[in-house]
Amino acid sequence: MLTVSPAPTPAPDRHTPERTCVACRRKRPQSALTRLTRVDGVWNLSVGYRAGRGAYVCSDSPDCWQDRRLRRAFGAQAPQVAAALTAQPQPLQQNHPRTLPTQGRDGSHRR
């Protein structure tokens, strides 16, 4: 008896983490949002690894940076957060996915 196997399925795409903007409530890739962290009760806009409670705001949408839209998430600190977001430099457009090294110096796949 001859059986036909189904065609091989293509490998799934790499997982892209999604987050929700606290101002407009749109779900977007994490790389398209700016993360703010709350440390000791104060919301900060910082670069790199950030510890603490986090909130995300659209990086490329000045409409989301208005303090009236940020009140729900940041309360009385919304004007300070809006000022920090407006003062930040515009992000570079990332048209390429983040690539990870495939092999270490010793030929292993570990980092």
Automatic annotation (TrEMBL):
Signal peptide: none annotated. Residues 19-77 form the YlxR domain. SUPFAM superfamilies: YlxR-like. InterPro entries: YlxR, YlxR-like_sf, YlxR_dom. Residues 1-27, 86-111 are annotated as: Disordered. PANTHER family: BLL0784 PROTEIN, YLXR DOMAIN-CONTAINING PROTEIN. This is YlxR domain-containing protein. It comes from Deinococcus knuensis.
